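Key result, reporting period 2: structure in, sequence out.
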């Protein structure tokens, strides 16, 4: 609400007006701090909170949590309220013919903003800055979700960040600055995006070890460019796979980026075994018995007799 007026009057935000207009319902408000005026709503919310959120559910992300809650909501349709003879699901089916049909198009829950990318490749969204791969001066399209920030260019997602609810923070992704760092490799070691990756646990010690070995072999600038090539390979082929490839390269004593990328893109042991079996089956079609040379030996023997 923008403002609480006298009695039951409210000044609603534009998003609330758009939401209720889209789904076709009318807002009704109670007096401030008077939950007893909507006791049915409060009691129902309390039931769902005690049965769905106690103990606190665990999920990998918001999408998994929503699926978990959806499954529990569907299961609750078999529940029968106290004093009722009909289950919640049966009551819903009985009520459905009397309801308005749902809108064919969904309501866009995300807020759309159009910030301009600054000289550091960042777009200011709400009170924080988020990195983008776009050049300075470009007006980006940003979708603001409750848990993430999506940056688009020509309706294609070019950057995705976890939303920050603080003030004045920078959320920088190292991959958005690789082109710049290739031109200025000396800036990579102390860059803010790299520090944030270290703090988030995305840059383990093995990457620093291979980086130092690359610098000792190719020099500081050349070694950093080699390291950037490894980062690009990890972003395209899988970051976890890159880390495993670097650990394997260090175990073998390899200090070349091309060799690490070869290990990264080499099939694992199970794939190599499966391909070997498949190849053996294909080659079995071309198997022929070995030729018998006894007759040639007889010819050779006869020629000796003739001589």
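The corresponding designed sequence is given below.
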């Amino acid at each position: 609400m923008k403002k609480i007026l006298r009695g039951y009057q409210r000044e609603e935000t534009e998003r609330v007006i758009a939401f209720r207009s889209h789904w076709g319902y009318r807002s009704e408000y109670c007096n401030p701090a008077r939950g007893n005026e909507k006791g049915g709503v409060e009691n129902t919310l309390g039931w769902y909170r005690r049965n769905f959120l106690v103990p606190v559910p665990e999920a990998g992300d918001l999408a998994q949590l929503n699926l978990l809650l959806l499954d529990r909501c569907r299961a609750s349709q078999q529940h029968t309220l106290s004093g009722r003879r009909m289950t919640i699901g049966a009551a819903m089916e009985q009520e459905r013919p009397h309801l308005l049909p749902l809108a064919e198009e969904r309501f866009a829950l995300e807020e759309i903003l159009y910030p301009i990318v600054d000289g550091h490749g960042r777009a200011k969204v709400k009170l924080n800055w988020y990195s983008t791969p776009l050049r300075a001066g470009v007006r980006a399209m940003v979708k603001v979700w409750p848990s993430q920030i999506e940056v688009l260019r020509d309706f294609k997602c070019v950057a995705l960040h976890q939303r920050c609810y603080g003030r004045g923070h920078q959320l920088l992704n190292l991959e958005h600055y690789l082109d710049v760092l290739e031109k200025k490799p000396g800036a990579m070691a102390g860059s803010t995006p790299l520090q944030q990756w270290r703090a988030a646990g995305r840059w383990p010690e093995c990457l620093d070890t291979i980086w130092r070995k690359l610098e000792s072999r190719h020099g500081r600038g050349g070694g950093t460019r080699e390291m950037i090539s490894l980062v690009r390979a990890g972003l395209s082929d899988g970051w976890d796979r890159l880390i495993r490839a670097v650990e394997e390269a260090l175990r073998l004593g390899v200090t070349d980026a091309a060799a690490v990328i070869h290990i990264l893109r080499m099939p694992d042991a199970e794939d190599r075994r499966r391909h070997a079996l498949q190849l053996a089956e294909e080659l079995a079609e071309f198997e022929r018995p070995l030729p018998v040379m006894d007759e040639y030996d007889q010819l050779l023997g006869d020629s000796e007799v003739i001589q």
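The longest helix spans residues 205-237. The two ends are 117 Å apart (CA to CA). This case is discussed further under Risks and Mitigation.
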